[in-house]
């Protein structure tokens, strides 16, 4: 779990600094929102919020998979079959075309917006503060 966060924090910090908003990398966000809510980052997610966030994540993963060729999908599934492999990291092992890359980024942006819409303003503040506090780690 800490390995995932170690990889996530710099990316999240970059996304925040570039966007000026509360958005964080999409395929990483669900893991942070749900997994970390039971650890140091306590967003006090309701059961309903957890279900909605997981559904948004699942839908985004399905959209990305539809963009892939048969060979790319095989690469992704091979990477995902490794124990503990995140979708985000597994996807990074697949060689995407420029067009696919742009489409994935658009899907990520949609997912982040949808997940942020599930959170309350207070939860968004807590998430932003957490990301800001880990920018230098």
Number of helices, counting only DSSP H or I runs of 4 residues or more = 7
* Count of the separate structural domains: 1
The overall strand count is 0
Question: Low-confidence runs (pLDDT<50, min 5 residues)?
Answer: 1-26
For the residues shown, what is the average pLDDT? 78
Query: Helix proportion of residues, in percent?
Result: over 70%
The largest sheet, given as strand count, sense and whether it forms a barrel, is: none
**Which range does the strand content fall in?**
under 5%
**Secondary structure category:** mainly alpha
* SSE pattern, N- to C-terminal: HHHHHHH
User: Could you state the oligomeric state of the chains shown?
Assistant: single chain
Terminal CA distance reads 15 Å
**Overall geometry:** elongated
Radius of gyration: 15 Å
What descriptors fit this protein?
single chain; 7 helices; 137 residues; disordered N terminus; elongated; 0% strand; 73% helix; mainly alpha; signal; P pilus assembly/Cpx signaling pathway, periplasmic inhibitor/zinc-resistance associated protein
Outline:
Helices cover about 75% and strands about 0% of the residues.
